[in-house]
């Protein structure tokens, strides 16, 4: 960096610390890299202009690396998303929607873990041991209520990477509600799973869910991987067939 540009940067930093920049403040004399017009508050660097009122800066292409390393020393943050829903601040209905989304994400995770991890094929000593501790014991003793729910300590440990994953795929304001929805989905899963094994449902919906899950244990163990619902089994073609359909297929063979 040459001395002239360094002097400009130092001047910008000095005056920015004295005057708080925002989308509505009066422009300071340091206009070498800052500019305000009717479109909003902009930063001008070299031969390209970026409007900080508009979301993201992916359109800069090869110029991005040069632009991103020209700092704006201000407490005013940029806009990430065009939609106000995903940007800063959410109403109570919006938070409720994000929670439901978290529950929905958990339902897919529930199905995926059960199908591809809990039912993984093992042969080695340690593979068999880990599988038995993780899920094999539950299939061998499905009515053992003491080993039905995943231990809370182990759950708390696994929540740490899950929290970081949620932060990675969402914004800082969306992450807590999305994580909360996923955690709520997990609690619903544990409670539902226990009830399906030890409860006596009276209504038709929980009766069907209990039958669907017990089919997985006692009839067709390579299908029916959902717990709280059969939605993903229907999506991915792993929903167990009824006994009558099985008999018809056997007779046709």
UniProtKB/TrEMBL annotation:
Keywords: Endoplasmic reticulum, Fatty acid biosynthesis, Fatty acid metabolism, Lipid biosynthesis, Lipid metabolism, Membrane, Metal-binding, Oxidoreductase, Transmembrane, Transmembrane helix, Zinc. The chain crosses the membrane at residues 92-113, 148-166, 178-196. Its main location: endoplasmic reticulum. InterPro entries: Fatty_acid_hydroxylase, Scs7. GO terms for cellular component: endoplasmic reticulum membrane. The keyword Oxidoreductase applies. It is found in: Endoplasmic reticulum membrane. One of its GO terms (molecular function) is fatty acid 2-hydroxylase activity. One of its GO terms (biological process) is fatty acid biosynthetic process. It is a multi-pass membrane protein. Its cofactor is Zn(2+). Residues 100-238 form the Fatty acid hydroxylase domain. Belongs to the sterol desaturase family. This is Fatty acid hydroxylase domain-containing protein.
């Amino acid at each position: 960096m040459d001395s002239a540009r360094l002097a400009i940067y130092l001047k910008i930093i000095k005056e920015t610390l004295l005057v708080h920049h925002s989308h509505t403040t009066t422009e300071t004399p340091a206009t070498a890299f800052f500019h305000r017009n009717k479109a909003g508050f902009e930063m001008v660097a070299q031969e390209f202009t970026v409007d900080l009122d508009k979301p993201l800066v992916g359109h800069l292409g090869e110029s991005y690396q040069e632009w991103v390393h020209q700092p704006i020393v201000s407490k005013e943050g940029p806009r990430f998303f065009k939609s106000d829903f995903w940007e800063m601040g959410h109403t109570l209905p919006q938070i409720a929607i994000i929670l439901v989304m978290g529950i929905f994400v958990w339902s897919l995770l529930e199905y995926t873990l059960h199908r591809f991890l809990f039912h993984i094929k093992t042969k080695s000593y340690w593979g068999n041991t880990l599988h038995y501790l993780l899920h094999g014991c539950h299939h061998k003793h499905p009515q053992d209520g003491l080993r039905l729910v995943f231990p809370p300590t182990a759950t708390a440990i696994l929540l740490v990477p899950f929290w970081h994953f949620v932060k990675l795929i969402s914004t800082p304001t969306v992450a807590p509600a999305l994580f909360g929805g996923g955690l709520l989905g997990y609690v619903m899963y544990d409670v539902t799973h226990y009830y399906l094994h030890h409860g006596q449902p009276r209504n038709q919906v929980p009766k069907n869910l209990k039958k669907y899950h017990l089919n997985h244990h006692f009839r067709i163990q390579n299908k029916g991987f959902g717990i709280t619902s059969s939605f993903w089994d229907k999506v991915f073609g792993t929903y167990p067939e009824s006994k009558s359909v099985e008999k018809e297929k056997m007779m046709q063979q």
